Amino acid sequence: MAPPRLNPHDAAQPDFTSEAHAASRLSLMNSGLTEEQAIAALANLWLINNEQERAAWDRSLAEEYRVAEDARQAAAEAEERQRLQSLADKEAALADERKKHKSKYTPVPNAKVPLEPICLPARYALKQMESGGYVELFYFTNQGIADTEEVATAPSDGTYVWKQQEDSLVEASTAKRGLKSDPLPDEKLSWEQFFEATPRMVEFISGLAFKATPDLQAKQALLSYQAKQWKLWHYSIGMAFGFSLAEIKEEVLKWTQDELTHKALNTQLNRMCM
C-alpha cells in the first residue's frame, strides 16, 4: 500500500541555516557564493520546487474530482434509466392488465340503481353493429337478451361457459356467438318478437352513430344549414319575407342536424339488412 501523499500547500520551508543543510551550503560556497547567498539560493530553489508541486497537486485533485464526478453522473444516469425502464415495464404491465381485464378497471359511475331493466345484447351483436355488419333481430328480443345474460366468455381461450343460478361456472359446449344456440332468422321471428327487437336495435344504432361522429355531424349540419339559408336569402331579396343571415337560427340548425342524423340511421339500417 502506497504511503499517503503530503499536501505541498501544507509544507513549511526548511531552515537552511541549520546543521542539516550544512553540506548543501558548503557545496554552493565552493562555487563562489557567500554563506548568506548560499542560504538564499537554497530557499529560492525550495520555493520554486514547492510551487511546481502545488500546481501538480492541484491538477491531480482536479483530475480525481473529474473522474469521481463522471462516475457519479454515470451511476445517476444508470439509476434514472433503470427507474424509467421499471416505470415503463409497470405501465406496460398495467396496460396489458387493463386490456385483459377491462371490467376490473372500468370506472364505476356514481349513479343510482335503474328502475327499468337494462337491455344489453351480446358483445358479438354490439361489435357487429359498430363495424356496420349484419346482426339478427333475435339478439334484441327478450329471449335473445335472456340467453346473453346466461352466457359468459371465458377469458383464457374465448370459449363460452354457462352461468348457473348458484353463481358457479360450469363448462358447457361452445355457444353460438354469445347465445345458447343459433339465433333465429329475422323471417322466423314472431310478431311479438319483432316489436320487441326493432325499437331496441334502433336505439342502439342511434347511440353508436351519435357517439361515433358528433363533431362531424355538427359540422355537416352547419354546412347544410348555411347552404340552404344562403339560397333562400338570395331568392328572398326584395321580397316581404326577406331575412338576414347575420344570426344563426338555432331551431333551424337543430332541425337540419336531426335530418342528417335520420338519414345516417337509415343508411346504417340499410347496410345491416343487406
Q: What does the model show?
A:
Mean pLDDT is 77; it is low at 152-174. Helix 1 packs across helix 2 and helix 7 packs across helix 8. The chain is mainly α and 274 residues long. The chain contains eight helices and three strands; from the N terminus they run H-H-H-H-H-E-E-E-H-H-H. It is elongated and about 135 Å long.
Write a brief caption for the model.
The protein has helices at 22-30, 35-100, 102-105, 123-130, 142-150, 191-212, 214-235, 250-273, and strands at 151-153, 160-163, 169-171.
Main-sheet strand order equals 1-2-3
Shape: elongated
Subunit arrangement of the protein: single chain
Strand content: under 5%
Number of helices: 8
Q: Helix coverage percent of residues?
A: 55-70%
Quick check: average pLDDT? 77
**Biggest pleated-sheet summary:** 3 strands, antiparallel
End-to-end span in angstroms?
A: 91 Å
> How many β strands by DSSP?
3
- Segments where pLDDT lies below 50 for 5+ residues? 152-174
Radius of gyration: 46 Å
The H-and-E topology, N to C, reads as HHHHHEEEHHH
Label the structural class.
Answer: mainly alpha
Give the SSE map.
Elements (H helix, E strand, L loop, with lengths): L21 H9 L4 H66 L1 H4 L17 H8 L11 H9 E3 L6 E4 L5 E3 L19 H22 L1 H22 L14 H24 L1
Features:
60% helix, 3 strands, single chain, mainly alpha, 274 residues, three-stranded antiparallel β-sheet, 4% strand
